[in-house]
Predict the structure of Bifunctional UDP-N-acetylglucosamine 2-epimerase/N-acetylmannosamine kinase.
Amino acid sequence: MEKHGNNRKLRVCVATCNRADYSKLAPIMFGIKAEPQFFELDVVVLGSHLIDDYGNTYRMIEQDDFDIHTRLHTIVRGEDEAAMVESVGLALVKLPDVLNRLKPDIMIVHGDRFDALALATSAALMNIRILHIEGGEVSGTIDDSIRHAITKLAHYHVCCTRSAEQHLISMCEDHDRILLAGCPSYDKLLSAKNKDYMSVIRMWIGEDVKPKDYIVALQHPVTTDIKHSIKMFELTLDALISFNKKTLVLFPNIDAGSKEMVRVMRKKGVEHHPNFRAVKHVPFDQFIQLVAHAGCVIGNSSCGVREVGAFGTPVINLGTRQIGRETGENVLHVRNADTQDKILQALHLQFGKQYPCSKIYGDGNAVPRILKFLKSIDLGEPLQKKFCFPPVKENISQDIDHILETQSALAVDLGGTNLRVAIVSMKGEIVKKYSQLNPKTYEDRIKLILKMCVEAASEAVNLNCRILGVGISTGGRVNPREGVVLHSTKLIQEWSAVDLRTPISDTLHLPVWVDNDGNCAALAERKFGHGKGVENFVTLITGTGIGGGIIHQNELIHGSSFCAAELGHIMVALDGPECLCGSHGCIEAYASGIALQREAKKLHDEDSLFVEGMSVKKEETVTAAHLIQAAKLGNPKADHIIRTAGTALGLGVVNILHTINPSLVILSGVLASHYVGVVKDMIHQRALFSVQTVDVVVSDLVDPALLGAASMVLDYTTRRIY
């Protein structure tokens, strides 16, 4: 695996410029330090780390027990555009001597700051290989240009998201030198929330402050529009003062315009206001705890749209500085933050909420991937970069072994009898499936769901699957916005007013989606089955009960109280048999597996069920399957019951056609093939002529509930705009 030549250690230089990039580089540095048999680590510190006004943050590197080889004072004060240019020039003057002395095999550079551009330029011109962390991302300021410039200088790339990987490929970078690893800081974030946090809150916010009852504000100047960003910062402080909550305000970074922003803070009296605490720096471990338990994070820092998503903390992203970032549903964008009222309204909307934890930027395993990547670097390869001009490679992702790491979902199906969990790939392949009997009590059921999901997520790593989230299909009425089962069917006990999203999201640190099993069947058909590319269609599930889902203009219909598509409870007779819902004459009372079993037992009690070729053991329960078998073997009474059930279902379909006029009806479930012929007959006999051309087909999907649950994860887009 180690390719860097002559079995010698790889000499790695990590250069850090500020508090933000150190939070991403520190996990890598700890990983390198922990493997001295493979690596030698040299640490170079420059930029705002060494400035008192910005917290002298080099001290946290020393506190982490890293030896700092070189300190370079590279910042020209002034905090304007010219000072940034002069700082880059000063760094370029000082770095060659350092690099000549260190002679690293590889330089690790992070991100998109002007200091990082100086580092990459120096290393490239001195023929030192460069590993760039977090390339390919899009934000919305001059940082984009700097980030992409470093990408063109770098020899190897570690990116955090699928989109960033595709951007790098589109920029003609060699796909074999791109590693989709996730953000290194997530390795620490995903294990941080449950640590002691009250002492941290008391230290930085105040003695009497409770979790979720304070705000963290972090806002930087936008170098391409300094005047507007200062005005926006002033409006933000006015809104925070009016909102009247305890607030921790971090000083801005050293970009052009930061001096003016500090003047605004002092003009507003922030440093002496009883609700505010203004600080230059918070150690990263403590900062994690503060944002994890905040009622809201506000500003325009990349931390808000990236790291904070790991905790589901609400974020208000102001202005255009992060306009191109991928974000979780916890982020509310106020892109034109031109009034205090607009920012204040955003605070009222977001403060105190809790969103699903997001893993867009990492799954907690970035550092092992990066170390493996470093060990694979062949120093014998030519240093000159090769660019892969279009056509680019197919849209695939490789880890360091060049094995496809499959984007996947955890799908959960809560049935009346069984509880199933599956790992489902983007293409709808069920990679692995687990099944247990569904417990009878709420406590046992939740415990088993969590246990099975944790085991499946762990196994997914061994199967080279990257889990993007959890989708849950369950019987009953569901509020998918909140992830809550409102009312259950009688088949699942103790399953009303149940919040499924929170315990699973908190345990797995993954976003969670929940919906009714009928809706999930429709989603499965839309992504993987006959409904693919069809704008308007209906799915009917024929199983233990009768359910369904409606896709109208490519969208799933939930209804005003989440009761849409209860197709099994369409009434087709005024005085028909009693349904489990308490009414009479529902489709489910005729055509469900329970209804057929009821009729089979009646025939059995009359000794009218079995015909030649059939038998049942004494202890064997009579089921719908016996009725179907009897009908196939020529039992006229059994055949009549099946045809009556199919007729009831057909009448229900006719009502659906007359109500929403779909172009396709998909019959799903174990009974579908027995009903499809009768349903088509009923459409031709009873439906209006204009809807008789509708296609009626039997689903090809084996596990629509699991596939539908997975599709909620695989198809979800996380952009929210205010």
Notes: The chain has 23 helices and 26 strands.
